[in-house]
Amino acid sequence: MKYSEFQYDKDNLKDTFKLLANAKELSLREVEQLFAKINLVIQSTAENIHLYPALLAFLIIAKEYHYDNYNAYINKADTPEKLINDLYGMIPQSELLDSHFCALVESFLIGAKHNDCNDAVGNSLKRHENIRKDETSSEEQKKYSNKVVKIAASFNGYRNNLSLDSLKQRIEMVESFQFSG
Q: How many CB atoms lie within 10 A of CB 144?
């Protein structure tokens, strides 16, 4: 890849999509259709635009299977909590706490809202900050929360260009294509 910050994107996309597809027990046909949508978004995006592929994969799956929460989130009408709860509902907690990709998706969901307004983040980030301080939290919970807070904090750097509007437009563009069987 040409841009160093994109170097892990292919693996992040592959591993996140695989985790979510397995968690949702998607059929091969569903996997093919969802991945075709992801591929169309990627192919229609300039090479120097960072798409956050882990977030892209999650949002496309959320749009398909958790439309109301996806729609509220993407249209800035809501905080990320409902979609984060959908993520938590997909992945068993034992896997979730060990998953870098769940932390990545959750951080991006929070970070994308952080750009709109700090109030739009809701309690998502605060909850992880509290877990890190809570002596009754397990080491796994603290480690996961540390990861979420650290990645979400990086949105003050180069990632502050994450635009939900841009992702939304790209995701909606693929809806104009027919994926029939």
A: 24
